[in-house]
Amino acid sequence: MSNEARRLRVGMIGVGGVGRLHLEAYRRSAAVEVTALCDADPERVADAAAACGAAAYTGHRDMLMSESLDIVCILTPPASRLGIVADVAAAGRAILVEKPMATTRADAEEMRRLCAAAGVPLSYGASYRHLPALKHARGLIAAGAIGDVTLLREDFVGGRGPSSRMALPPWHYPEGGIGGSGMGLVDHGVHLIDAFAWLTGSPVTWASGRGNVSGAPLETEYAILGLANGATGHLLYEDGTWPTQLPAEGQFSWGASWDVDGYHPGGAWQAHPGSIHVHGTRGALRIFHYAHALYLSDAEGTRQITLEGDPAPDHFRAQIDAFACEVRNGLAPTSNADAGIAALAVLEAIYASGARNIRVEPQS
């Protein structure tokens, strides 16, 4: 079999929650083959490995020593990733690391340094870039369909009252640092911080807002972002109240999605689907990123745009396929460590702003 035809061998570290969704998506790939899985929970990794015919490990160092791998995907909680990246880089394997890249910008920068020193590619899991609705929206923006972008916004406000708030545990986000719930500013909003810059081709130059601290009581989170092109980004998150959307404002969701109630597999009516609003000088876009729908509004009215590609969670397959192509051809990752570091720099600026009640420029 030629090198071009051979599927690249992938090892996955972390197969709980979103890791299982990555695994199922990778199994549909013609570019990669999952040959090894690692998880600290022996029963969980054994079950996952049996389902896909992969080798099972409870220690990533054992996996690295025993398996001939081309790519290692690190899907463990953010607090654990720096040490794992160090070991995988030392083993000379290409790395894809989930979002957020780490819990601090300093740790993410150290990951970048370690991989550069070892000469291994490091890809940041900015998976929203592979959602068809966002990809098509980016093309429309670049083509000038809505003119100059002036405002981007996303919010998640809902839940089932204060008791529905559920912070991610300290082993995920250590107490005293960034944290909050799964649909909050850090674990979810980090996608939008990257997406706003990616959609517009313009980085965030200043930020203000407030984010939840791990171990502290959960509150409403928000961020105002200034982009280099003059546009403003707005994020708002609160999952300890009730939604106000009316029934007719829902969408049939073709794709899988996440909200305060957890994971939804798709293929059903969704009363409160997540969406991204992009406003410009000549029109606006409503991007239902998980529901797999895109609407363009301008002087001619509002119309739905036809999308190509499969909805979530297939974006995880598209992501690994893109990285596998880059690894195979010796190309630098398109979604690289710089993107993950930039997102963390913005998060840290938001937290600094909340602590000091001022607008703060992210450090480069």
From TrEMBL:
SUPFAM superfamilies the record matches: Glyceraldehyde-3-phosphate dehydrogenase-like, C-terminal domain, NAD(P)-binding Rossmann-fold domains
The UniProt record lists the keyword Oxidoreductase: yes
Classification via InterPro entries: Gfo/Idh/MocA-like_OxRdtase_N, Gfo/Idh/MocA_oxidrdct_glycsds, GFO_IDH_MocA-like_dom, NAD(P)-bd_dom_sf
Record domain Gfo/Idh/MocA-like oxidoreductase N-terminal: where: 8-125
Domain GFO/IDH/MocA-like oxidoreductase: 135-285
UniProt xrefs under Pfam families: GFO_IDH_MocA, GFO_IDH_MocA_C3
Protein's UniProt keywords contain Membrane: no
Keywords: Oxidoreductase
Name this protein carries in UniProt: Dehydrogenase
Organism: Sphingosinicella microcystinivorans
